[in-house]
From TrEMBL:
PANTHER family: SERINE/THREONINE-PROTEIN PHOSPHATASE 2A REGULATORY SUBUNIT B'' SUBUNIT GAMMA, SERINE_THREONINE-PROTEIN PHOSPHATASE 2A REGULATORY SUBUNIT B'' SUBUNIT GAMMA. It comes from the Eukaryota. It comes from Echeneis naucrates. The keyword Amino-acid biosynthesis does not apply. GO terms for biological process: B cell homeostasis; cortical cytoskeleton organization; microtubule cytoskeleton organization; positive regulation of B cell differentiation; regulation of dephosphorylation; T cell homeostasis. Residues 1-30 are annotated as: Disordered. GO terms for molecular function: metal ion binding. This is Serine/threonine-protein phosphatase 2A regulatory subunit B'' subunit gamma. Residues 15-30 have a biased composition (Basic and acidic residues). GO terms for cellular component: centrosome; cytoplasm; nucleus; spindle. Keywords: Calcium, Cytoplasm, Metal-binding, Nucleus, Repeat. Residues 185-261 form the PP2A regulatory subunit B'' EF-hand domain. It is found in: Cytoplasm; Nucleus. The gene is ppp2r3c.
Length: 458
């Protein structure tokens, strides 16, 4: 019948359609395979005509497993290879004779006229010196270095002395890096506390300004010196410092300044690493330690400085930082001193901010400020002064800091405001608050004194 014929025809057509779809898909797959084959062929020919791309074999190795503690031979091999590497790097540096030769060549090629009292050199003469100075000096005689030292000379010259000082500084930095790397036991570009202690201990005999130190004091001196590095360069307290960070900061310059046998008294007093400074800090610690047990209690620490730190602040110090049976050792005391003597520095503000942020919220609010300032008000009553209103002080603090959030002061707000030292002094130290409160009177007195001195001079 017509219906049966139509049904058969439809079924046949449907089945035929089903057979065509896989055929169409196979064609597409064959085309893609052919494209891939052609692409691979032309790409390998372009890369050099190899049948197989082996570019992955040129990828450099970037991970080297450190030897385990029980792999003694591998550890020794690694230490020896590092020592040989550092020796080779040391030989690449300019020695004293080569530096003297460089200075002689620079002086010989100076180009008139003299600028003030400084001998100058032109770019052409600079290149001539570079050709004659030897292969070790080649890296210093580049257009980039010349451009760095080029200032306002009308003839386009640079100062010979400035260039020579630049070379000396570079040589010193590389020498120091190699010296520090010798103490890098892990070989990973950082020093642990014990590594830096060994470095400074072996450095002491080479510093004439420390000749007067008794050997019994060496361990305390080393502890005093190392704490400054770790307090400022290891804010996360990881127990290690990058050698690059040590070279980038000025602390090593201050330490090596002690090589100068004629260092002035003022320079010694302002240098944390000098013998007078180290003895001062340790002497203060001994004077505070009334029971002579080698540790400081909260009561003993309360006499620090002008003895005007609030008890609330001292409570927080003993709550937050490492103590032994409720007493503070010399290392923890050094962190305390570094924080209070350098309140403008971000690391010191971080130390104090942690104490003020009682609930570890990451910010100070009105409650936090009020909590600490109440202790200042109580001290004012004890000294017979009328307490200052907290509302006035709170408004002044927020005006000084100008935080992003008008109700919260973060550590970054304190750092950005450049008023962190003043704000923290107002909250933790009666003497600091009094100095801030009477700043106008103190400035006026200073002006009167300077005027009197001027009259005396006339």
């Amino acid at each position: 019948s017509f219906y049966d014929d139509h049904r058969r025809t439809g079924t046949t057509a449907y089945k035929t359609k089903e057979r065509k779809e896989p055929y169409s898909i196979r064609n597409e797959e064959e085309k893609k395979a052919e494209e891939t084959e052609l692409f691979t062929k032309y790409y390998t020919e372009w890369r050099g005509g190899k049948d197989k791309d082996e570019s992955y074999k040129t990828i450099p190795r970037f991970y080297y497993r450190l030897p385990a503690e029980d792999e003694v031979l591998l550890q020794k091999l690694r230490e020896e290879s590092r020592a040989v590497f550092l020796q080779r790097k040391s030989r690449e540096l300019l020695d004293n004779e080569e530096l003297q030769n460089l200075w002689f060549l620079l002086d010989k090629h100076q180009v008139p006229p003299v600028s003030g009292e400084e001998a100058m050199i032109s770019y052409e003469a600079y290149l001539q010196v570079g050709e004659r100075a030897g292969p070790k000096c080649k890296k210093f005689f580049t257009a980039r270095v010349y451009a760095k030292l080029l200032h306002n000379d009308p003839y386009g010259r640079i100062s010979i002395m400035q260039f020579f000082n630049y070379v000396m500084r570079k040589v010193w930095l590389h020498q120091t890096r190699i010296g520090l790397s010798l103490y890098d036991v892990a070989g990973q570009g950082y020093l642990r506390e014990s590594d830096l202690e060994n470095y400074i201990l072996e450095l002491i005999p080479t510093l004439p300004q420390l000749d007067g130190l008794e050997k019994s004091f060496y361990s305390f001196y080393v502890c005093t010196a190392v704490r400054k590095f770790f307090f400022f360069l290891d804010p996360l307290r990881t127990g290690k410092i990058k050698i690059q960070d040590i070279l980038a900061c000025s602390f090593l310059d201050d330490l090596l300044e002690l090589r100068d046998e004629e260092l002035s008294k003022e320079s010694q007093e302002s240098n944390w690493f000098s013998a007078p400074s180290a003895l001062r800090v340790y002497g203060q610690y001994l004077n505070l330690d009334k029971d002579h047990n080698g540790m400081l209690s909260k009561e003993e620490l309360s006499r620090y400085g002008t003895a005007t730190l609030t008890s609330v602040f001292l409570d927080r110090v003993f709550q937050e930082y490492l103590t032994y049976d409720g007493e503070m050792d010399y290392k923890t005391y050094l962190d305390f001193v570094l924080a209070l003597e350098n309140r403008k520095e971000p690391a010191a503000l971080q130390y104090i901010f942690k104490l003020l942020d009682m609930e570890n919220q990451g910010y100070l609010n009105v409650f936090s400020l009020n909590y600490f300032f109440r202790a200042i008000q109580e001290q004012m009553k004890l000294h017979g002064h009328e307490p200052v209103s907290f509302q006035d002080v709170k408004d002044e603090i927020f005006d000084m800091v100008k935080p992003k959030d008008p109700y919260k002061i973060t550590l970054q707000d304190l750092v950005n405001s450049c008023q962190g030292d003043t704000v923290t002094s107002i909250l933790i130290d009666l003497n600091g608050f009094w100095t801030y409160e009477n700043r106008e009177v103190l400035v006026a007195n200073d002006n009167d004194n300077s005027n009197t001195a001027d009259l005396d001079d006339t």
